[in-house]
Specification:
heterodimer; A: mainly alpha; ABC transporter involved in vitamin B12 uptake, BtuC; globular; B: mainly alpha
């Protein structure tokens, strides 16, 4: 995990000069950074072409084309797939994953990893049910929801402090939190399922406004906010800088610990948002909620081309990757393979990442060959 | 912490710290619940430990070499399905065992090949193959489960060996000795630590990095297949969800055992202690308080607490120097 990848300017793809210090790409996950081959001519045709070639920009294009191709093929096979009802459903399904991915992506860009989001969601769902349900404490929505949001941020903060102040590697800290919080969630549920959430919350989560439920609205808002945060604020630049080389960033005076704690906090908060908007949609709250959410989110973050060693990755790719992965199950149902097809969902998810990995490798090799010629 | 010496000794040896914690827990258990320490009961409950232990020991080497294998649980699922289908069609346990082993080796070779050729981080490659293998197991089996493999098979892989310890236990003892020897006494042990410490330096020093990695992941596939055989024999059932969650349990044990997740250092003895610590704590927590969820909470706390304490002590020692 060498951190040789330079801090890509998140907004633009045309790099400002080659800041690439790839001295022997042995341990790097992606070879030399091909984004740097575009020279300094921003906005020219050349940078467009390099978008095609570089894994960073090409990845998003590839994902978008793949989504369109899948939609086209399946729509040709069965026109019902292209109707609003189906896409409405897909939109609702991918909303919570998009919201959580925005947070986890920042954590990964900073060079950490968070695999505890699924358990956080389970615990917060239990908290939501316990406080709001008509069979339980019957709190007002205006007290229960802020409490859930605050708890999410606090849990993230604890993980962040363990990682930074406690010096526990993030994969271990979040693995421990994942086990621990799942236990707390089961304990908080007290061995039964909770239903009877207030009508207003259920209505917002199921029908929403203008025909679109709360989930997609919240996802839109979160994506916009995260995009602005990453590309238009000093905080975003600092995050990329710290992720690409924590030591240099620290020497340059950036609050490395603060940024990393913030990232975990943000991921926890967004998980809480996803819980609030999505969980009331379910008929009842069970302790199994959010299991495998962390895997889904990490899979989409990796698929989107975010470098696992930090410093690189863009939000648009993450959103597209979540949509693509969510698409797999409905597509398998629509193709006439029927019920049996759904069981292959995971295999296809795996295949997508492998494809991404191999294509990355291939394009990096091609790039190097072209350069050496 | 000013007196220094005992703290320093504990901090220098993670194993010693684990052993102290383990002894403390066992002593507490023996005080509150004397029947907990009975040899027969412990042996009976140790059966669930052997599959995890088998994979955890292999994983120790992988993590020392700076890698990680998330796909072990999924390989177990695929191996179990291969075993079940082969047994159903041929009615021969021997053939099914061979099919199971070959599947494991195939999956391992797939992981190792991808990691060695593409040089992508193992976390990503095995994340992908984890999804792929589990998905294949689910897709091929379509939720079916296979059973009735016969007395003979059950006795061969899950029966009692000498001293009342299960066959899996003896396989584990042998493997632990072999791997510990490899790690501390042979060239390959040094190579592993070199690759984990600094892969580029190891490559320049002439270590066959690619071959080493390929062999490691191949070995993990093989160990997963062996673990599948033990677990299939124990339950007399082969299903696609065999080994679910295995990867996290194994990594917890390895890390608790003091192996650095960044590679370069670690010992088999630590992993064995880590495994025992998790196993005993879990057993005791669930039997003493009779609340099952406490197991998870205790294990989570143990993992974070042990690693944080180790890091803090290490810093303390460094400051004293």
């Amino acid at each position: 995990m060498t951190r040789q990848d330079r801090a890509n300017d998140p907004g633009r793809d045309s790099g400002d000069g080659s800041g690439n210090t790839a001295a022997g790409g042995a341990g790097s996950s992606r070879g030399s950074s091909p984004g740097s081959s575009s020279g300094g001519t921003s906005g020219s045709w050349y940078s467009v072409r390099s978008t095609w070639r570089s894994p960073a920009g090409g990845r998003e294009l590839g994902l978008a084309l793949l989504i369109l191709a899948i939609a086209g093929v399946v729509g040709f096979h069965d026109p019902v797939f292209l109707t609003g009802v189906v896409w409405h459903d897909i939109l609702v399904r991918c909303a919570p994953a998009i919201i959580v991915s925005c947070g986890v992506m920042i954590v990964v860009v900073l060079g950490d990893i968070d695999i505890s989001v699924g358990s956080i969601m389970a615990l917060l769902a239990a908290l939501l049910g316990r406080t709001l349900s008509s069979h339980e404490l019957q709190w007002s929505v205006w007290a229960g929801v802020p409490l859930v949001l605050l708890s999410g941020a606090m849990i993230g903060c604890v993980t962040g402090m363990l990682v930074t102040l406690g010096r526990v590697p993030s994969i271990i800290a979040s693995l421990g939190m994942m086990t621990l919080l799942r236990g707390f969630a089961t304990l908080a549920m007290g061995g039964k399922n909770i239903d009877g959430l207030p009508e207003a919350v259920v209505h917002a989560s199921k029908t929403g406004w203008f025909g679109i439920p709360l989930g997609p609205w919240a996802a839109l808002l979160v994506v916009l906010a995260t995009y602005i945060l990453l590309t238009r604020t000093a905080l975003g630049v600092r995050i990329y800088a710290t992720g690409s080389h924590p030591e240099s960033a620290g020497n340059a005076g950036l609050p490395v610990y603060g940024l990393r704690i913030f990232a975990f906090c943000y991921a926890g908060f967004l998980t809480a948002v996803a819980t609030v908007v999505d969980v009331p949609r379910l008929p009842k709250i069970e302790s199994g909620i959010g299991s495998e959410l962390e895997l889904f989110v990490i899979t989409s973050v990796v698929l989107s081309g975010v470098s696992i060693s930090g410093g690189r990755g863009r939000l648009s790719g993450v959103v597209l990757a979540v949509v693509l992965l969510t698409l797999v199950r409905p597509v398998l149902t629509f193709l006439s393979v029927g019920e049996a097809g759904e069981k292959w969902t995971k295999a296809i998810h795996g295949l997508f990442i492998l494809l991404a990995v191999v294509s990355d490798r291939f394009s990096a090799t091609m790039d190097r060959r072209k350069k050496s010629r | 912490m000013s007196e220094g010496t005992p703290w320093r000794r504990i901090a220098r040896s993670h194993e010693l710290m684990l052993a102290v914690i383990l002894a403390g827990i066992l002593a507490f258990a023996g005080w509150r619940m004397p029947q907990f320490l009975a040899w027969d009961g412990q042996l009976n409950l140790s059966r669930q430990l052997w599959e995890t232990a088998l994979i955890a020991m292999g994983m120790t080497l992988v993590v020392i070499a700076g890698g990680i294998d998330l796909s072990v649980g999924a390989i177990m699922g695929l191996c179990a399905i291969a075993f079940g289908i082969c047994h159903q069609s041929s009615q021969s346990v021997g053939l099914a065992t061979v099919a199971c082993m070959l599947t494991g080796i195939g999956c391992g070779a797939c992981n190792g090949g991808l990691i060695a050729i593409t040089r992508v981080h193992p976390l990503i490659v095995t994340l992908a193959t984890m999804a792929a293998f589990r998905g294949m197991a689910e897709g091929i089996s379509q939720g079916a489960s296979y059973s009735r493999f016969g007395e003979h098979f059950g006795r061969a892989f899950a029966g009692q060996g000498p001293f009342g310890i299960a066959v899996g236990g003896w396989i584990n003892f042998a493997l632990a000795i072999v791997l510990a020897t490899v790690l501390s006494r042979t060239r390959w042990g040094r190579y592993l630590r070199a690759v984990g410490g600094n892969e580029l330096a190891a490559r320049y020093a002439g270590v066959p990095v690619e071959r080493l990695k390929f062999t490691l992941y191949l070995g993990m596939g093989l160990l997963s297949a062996c673990a599948t055989l033990i677990s299939v024999a124990r339950f007399d059932t082969a299903k696609a969800d065999a080994g679910r969650g295995m990867e996290l349990e194994v990594i917890t044990a390895v890390v608790l055992g003091g192996t650095s997740v960044f590679g370069g250092s670690g010992r088999i003895g630590g992993t064995v202690l880590g495994l025992l610590l998790i196993h005993e704590t879990r057993l005791f927590a669930s039997r003493y308080w009779r609340i099952d969820e406490l197991r998870q909470i205790v294990v989570g706390c143990l993992l974070i607490g042990a690693v944080a304490a180790y890091q803090a002590l290490k810093r303390e020692v460094r400051r004293e120097k």
